[in-house]
Amino acid sequence: MSHPPSQPRTPVFAANWKMSHGPAETGAFVERFTAHHRRRSDATVVIFPPAISLAAFAAAASGRLDLEFGVQDVHTELEGAHTSGISAAMVPATGATWALAGHSERRREFGDTDADVGRKLVRILEAGLRPVLCVGETLEERESGRLSTVLETQIREAVRPLDREDRARLVYAYEPVWAIGTGRTASPADAAEAHAIVREQLARTEGCDAERAAILYGGSVKPANIEALLAAPGVDGVLVGGASLDPDSWAAICAAGR
Ligand code: PGA
Hints:
Blueprint: E1 12-16, H1 23-36, E2 44-48, H2 54-60, E3 67-71, E4 98-101, H3 104-110, H4 114-126, E5 130-135, H5 139-143, H6 147-159, H7 164-167, E6 171-174, H8 188-204, E7 215-218, H9 226-231, E8 237-240, H10 247-254
Parallel strand pairs: 1-2, 1-8, 2-3, 3-4, 4-5, 5-6, 6-7, 7-8
This protein binds 2-phosphoglycolic acid.
């Protein structure tokens, strides 16, 4: 498992608010966060609010163009009778420039398959948004020795419908399902091992840019473990749920590695 030394990749600090922070809380969050967070030119900070709060986020953060934002999911179709669906084509008008695809909560609660995730990536890229493909194994999969197989399958199937150019545009998030919202973080060594597997799979997949792709770690990241995780080989940033909801804790995370 040897790679040439990789070029430095700009760290990404991503916040996934899931179903927290409606429009009212979003404005208050941005006000408090921006009072503490100093703009950084050496990192990207991106927040994924719930869709209902996108307009509030855009308004509250209008003076802080360094803060990027995105949607947590898009529909596989661009239009039509899909009650509650979010069309990727409608996202850019909100000012959002990123989109998540394949979060484990989407896979588990809404039955998103690898093929669905692939279709969503196509929509996200057509809309000119920056996709984050989330992959990760369950505890049972890890304990039965299937870590590599699960990650490889999730990546291979999701990128299948993408052409070479689009494959090179993906950002990845490795999020072990057993570490999400559980307080149980993967050790820096666990994260490094899984990120190396992801990068190996990218190197084997035509069109994917293994050395330049950003691979984020997600799962119970908090101010107390951010520095150690960011220092792990191959970890290019983080995708944070619970600890991103408090503006002070999120500011502490976004200050890591300065
Ligand atoms: P967590 O969630 O930080 O609350 O574990 C991470 C995620 O699901 O993206």
